[in-house]
Specification:
alpha+beta, about 25% strand, 14-stranded mixed β-sheet
């Protein structure tokens, strides 16, 4: 049967078909794929709920054969990034498909045509609306458990992108970091030197409410400042910051957040980690009901061995000065108390030496690599 491409309306009913395809069909029996939380994906895709639509537009396509779903893809244009980088780039993201050339070609052709009609001259992905969305096609580490913040895909994905003429734009790497029983001595020394030299200190919050009130806006301002020069970064707007403060900060365990401030209590560094939700999301299939909430609660209270390191942001004037050591001086005792055996880093650009230097004092393994592909259209 021929492949049929359907452009979806941006409604809850239509978008749920898009969201459920990888969870219920393509990766139904995968032991490495971690489903997205369905409610989070709806908030990401619905224009009424995602502040990124203030400067983005999108189109959602699904492929069907004999009436059955066989693939999906989203086309995205981030006008803010295009303006900053002076280019006309379309993005493709949230892409999944069976291993079939006809299906892949039809999906990519639909997004390319949509992007061309919008005046775009190249297509890059997998990328989301902003850097807060998962990005990068997995090209190494297909036998590794995924995380809630990254994409998992089958090994045939990059082969199809290359077959269609897409080439490497950038690579990200990820590391598995063994949690040491003691803070590395060298790191303790560096931390002490940094604190005294720059008059810095670790900040402790007594409640999430206090965290949000005192440092909520500062955390995201620091992320904007720290990440500004990174690949394809889309600065968070005031509306986005408010959204992320309300949606995410209240649910982060306080002992997984490390804050570094200067003598005036101005935030100069933040490290955020969370208990791994991967197993909980697999068990719940990305749904909170009827029992997904129970699996999530168990994970947050910690019944696992893994902690996910979501992000580290340091003010540019303090980068490469050892501030990162303070995060681990702060967090390693908490990780040991929780019984974590290893940490999963989030994606790091392969040439980001400043970030990767921080792992030199740990037992690590680079176990995943992912890629953004690009092509002129």
């Amino acid at each position: 049967m021929a492949v049929e491409i359907r452009k979806l309306e941006p409604t809850k009913k239509e978008l749920l078909k898009f969201i459920h395809f990888p969870i219920d069909v393509l990766y139904n029996h995968s032991t490495c794929y971690v489903p997205d939380l369905v409610s989070d994906m709806l908030s990401t895709f619905l224009p009424s709920e995602n502040p990124a639509y203030d400067f983005c537009e999108s189109a959602f396509f699904m492929a069907y054969r004999d009436g059955k779903p066989v693939g999906r893809i989203a086309g995205i244009i981030n006008s803010l990034v295009n303006q900053r980088e002076q280019k006309q780039e379309g993005r493709f993201g949230f892409v999944d498909f069976i291993d079939d050339e006809e299906v892949v070609d039809a999906l990519m052709r639909a997004v390319e045509q949509w992007a061309k009609e919008k005046g775009m001259t190249c297509l890059t992905g997998p990328l989301g609306f902003t850097d807060m969305d998962p990005e990068g096609c997995l090209i190494e580490g297909f036998d590794q458990l995924g995380t809630q913040a990254t994409i998992y895909n089958y090994p045939y994905y990059p082969k199809h992108f290359e077959r269609l003429g897409f080439v490497k734009d950038v690579d990200w790497v990820e590391f598995k970091v063994i949690v040491p029983e003691q803070i590395p001595e060298k790191m303790v020394k560096i931390g002490n030197i940094v604190q005294h030299r720059f008059n810095l200190h670790l900040v402790k919050m007594n409640s999430t409410k206090e965290l949000v009130k005192k440092y909520g806006n500062e955390i995201f301002a620091l992320i904007n400042e720290s990440y500004d020069s990174l690949f394809g970064y889309s600065p968070l707007s005031e509306k986005q910051v408010k959204h992320y403060i309300n949606v995410y900060l209240p649910f982060l365990p306080l002992d997984h957040i490390s804050l570094v401030a200067d003598a005036n209590d101005k935030l100069v560094g933040v490290g955020i980690s969370v208990p791994s939700l991967s197993r909980a999301l697999i068990k719940s299939r990305g749904r909170m009901l009827p029992f997904g909430w129970y699996h999530m609660l168990k994970a947050i209270k910690h019944e696992g061995r893994i902690v996910d390191l979501l992000l580290i942001a340091v003010a540019p004037e303090y980068q490469s000065k050892g501030v990162n050591s303070l995060f681990f001086v702060d967090l390693i005792p908490a990780f040991n108390k929780r019984g974590y055996e290893w940490a999963e880093t989030n994606i790091e650009l392969e040439n980001n030496e400043n970030v990767q230097k921080q792992w030199q004092y740990f037992d690590i393994k680079q176990h995943k690599r992912r890629r953004a592909f690009t092509k002129d259209i």
